[in-house]
Amino acid sequence: xxxxxxxxxxxxxxxxxxxxLKVNLFIVGEQKCGTTSFHQFxxxxxxxxxxxxxxxxxxxxxxxxxxxxxxxxxxSYRYDIRFKRNPKYLIDSSTNYGFSELALQRIADYNPNxxxxxxxxxxxxRFFSAxxxxxxxxxxxxxxxxxxxxxxxxxxxxxFNITNFFExxxxxxxxxxxxxxxxxxxxxxxxxxxxxxxxxxxxxxEDLTTPKTFKEIVIPTCSNFLGLELDPNLxxxxxxxxxxxxxxxxxxxxxxLEEYYKLNP
Length: 265
What we know:
The protein is an alpha/beta fold. The chain has a single domain (about 10-265), classed as Rossmann fold (3-Layer(aba) Sandwich). It is built from twelve helices and five strands. The chain has helices at about 1-20, 35-45, 70-75, 80, 100-110, 125-140, 145-155, 160-170, 185-195, 205-210, 210-225, 250-265, and strands spanning about 25-30, 50, 90, 115-120, 200-205. It has a five-stranded parallel beta sheet with strand order 2-3-1-4-5, sandwiched between helices. The longest helix has 18 residues, at about 1-20. It is globular and about 60 Å long.
């Protein structure tokens, strides 16, 4: 009886504390730029709460979005809160938010004080990494409506390879938006047009994956931005890697991409 009473009181405290919290940290991109690894790194700290729906909730760019009632979204964070005391951030790392003006504006309307993190990398490297991701991950394990559309196209094109992936993405009707997702300056400008600059942090994949810069630059920068002391002794985890893809770099494709991103940085 006593234990049951304590359990009920604890649930009430958790519910009341959690009901005051809004999701307030968004890693909005870019896909294949280390967002999964960075998300897992932050979750090692007690100050971050993850949704039970996973790293990529994709709420603000889906049919589940309800501008008048966000309870479905916010309740998905409650399971984790009982294990962490006084969390500072509820984190959503949906990489499809970054290039969607609608999703970004919805986030700003939902929480104007939200912190936004965007990670970029060499766009040519990102393009080849994205191909492998779609070919070997999304095709087998689609999670979102967008993934299902991608999978549908791949099933309709059984000879899908790096060449026809490239041809499709440079056509007037791209499926994967692989070129657009590498136009980082355009995405960064969009983010800054919606959010206060002091609430936005831009990071580079190459700094995350180089131990020296990760420890000496990334961790202090993030600690300052987030107002939390991140452990400088932790290593950057390797999650969701698309692996080795040097053999995919067909010269004419690589040359086209290099020229394209000079004109569309």
